[in-house]
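Hi Y.,

Following your request, here is the sequence exactly as I used it, all 251 residues.
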Amino acid sequence: MKKREKLAIIHQHYPDAITTIDGVNRMIDFIENVLDLEPSKIMLADSICSDDVNSIQYPARTSEFLGPFKMGGLDGFPFTGLTGMGAFASHVPDEGAVFIYYGPHIGVSKNGAIGEIHRFGQHKNSGCCGAAKGALSKLVDNLIEPNNITEMDYQMNTIEQILLKEKDRILSAEFPIKEATEVIYEAIDKRIIELARATKYNCKYVILMGAILINSDSDMGSFNEIRRFEYVNLETKERVDLTKKFVTCDF
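Below is the corresponding structure, written out as tokens. Let me know if you'd prefer a different format.
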């Protein structure tokens, strides 16, 4: 299947999505051409779901960066918190940059079904993100108790509480799993911004890329719909929003 055919399927739900590989290539072009840095000067941290499909579909070219430092747990929420953010901030080259890539993931299968994918070696589709679908199922059945976060299932309970706060919005949507993913993205984005503002970086730039990570069947690969792309010059304190330019590849 050609790339344009794959994108046509994904664009049914995410019209601005690009392949994850193209996203990494654009990112490296930006680093080299705009920031005048080499990828080897970039400390990558990601806050994406610990689902194995994300490791399988992680683009090989990210190996040009340092890292990645893993911040995310279930559906990408940055469970490593301030300690995690501070840890990789201390690992970055002095004349380099921190690059934080974050967001929840969702499946779109080859036949256009949202919330599921066909994984390698399986006979039928399975949920993606499974944690988001599980939390959504409990939300539908009124099984989420407010403020109930346990030690035994802390991460899942946190995802449940995020969805509970937006129950009406999610359940009234045409595709509740898609809306639940949007809600989780907003929670991750808010937390990443809070963590970044509370962390000291001894480097030149901090780059933030927030996205909906879209997985598909094993022969389709993965895609991203970029929601935030900006960088901060730590010397001048200038913050530059390049989200629209990144989508159009117009730096």
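The chain has a mean pLDDT of 96.

Thanks again,
Q.
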